[in-house]
Design goal:
The protein is built from 6 helices and 8 strands, in the order E-H-E-E-H-E-H-E-H-E-E-H-E-H. By secondary structure, the chain is α+β, with helices and mostly antiparallel strands. It folds into 2 domains: 80 residues, Alpha-Beta Plaits, CATH 3.30.70.1280; 93 residues, 2-Layer Sandwich (Alpha-Beta Plaits), CATH 3.30.70. The longest helix is centred in the middle third of the chain and has 16 residues. The model has no long low-confidence stretch (mean pLDDT 92). This is DUF1697 domain-containing protein.
Length: 180
């Protein structure tokens, strides 16, 4: 049995509203167990005996799209890999006045493109560094989503393969016990 987290992109924003109970039910209907949602921003922990991660991802996306009527995109990460991502965060996650983020991607070439775009960032405002299957990012709180890199990652061409989470959210995912 493997514990995964599905990081959904774009729910409970821009008119796509999904109740967490309905989201949990969808995962259970797919045969996943110990399903737990964390926060209301599209974070689903679940156990499965399935081993083909791309097939799991495709099946979840299809089920979400069918049930909720939107183009569903997720990034699927096993919790062991997620723990490594959090542990390897290269910046000071408690830095006063800064937000610590991780950009997850399901396509390595897209993460490479984002890392390349981040090479010219002003370190007084934001910084980014590549990681294993992710891009680490920190940004001044006072700038936040108006930063150049945030605007760049928000482009439509990245929507299908990337999603961003605050490091504190990832800590909550790792600390969440399986649903009982």
């Amino acid at each position: 049995m493997t514990r995964f987290v599905a990081l959904l992109r774009g729910i409970n924003v821009n008119g796509i509203t999904i109740a967490m109970n309905d989201l949990r039910d969808t995962f259970e209907e797919l045969g996943h167990t110990s399903v737990r949602t964390v926060l209301a921003s599209g974070n689903v922990l679940f156990d499965t005996d399935q081993t083909d991660a791309p097939a799991i991802k495709a099946r979840i996306e299809r089920a979400l799209g069918d049930r909720f009527g939107y183009d569903a995109w997720i990034v699927l990460v096993d919790t062991g890999s997620l723990a490594r991502v959090v542990r390897d965060y290269p910046f000071d996650p408690g830095r006063e006045g800064w937000h610590p983020y991780v950009v997850f991607g399901s396509e390595p070439a897209v993460l490479d493109e984002l890392a390349s775009a981040a090479s010219g960032l002003d370190p007084a405002i934001e910084q980014a560094a590549p990681g294993h299957g992710v891009l680490y990012w920190q940004v001044l709180r006072s700038v936040g989503i108006t930063s150049p890199f945030s605007k760049f990652t928000g482009k439509a061409r990245y929507r299908t393969t990337t999603t961003t989470r605050n490091l504190r959210t990832l800590d909550k995912l790792l600390a969440a016990p399986p649903a009982g």
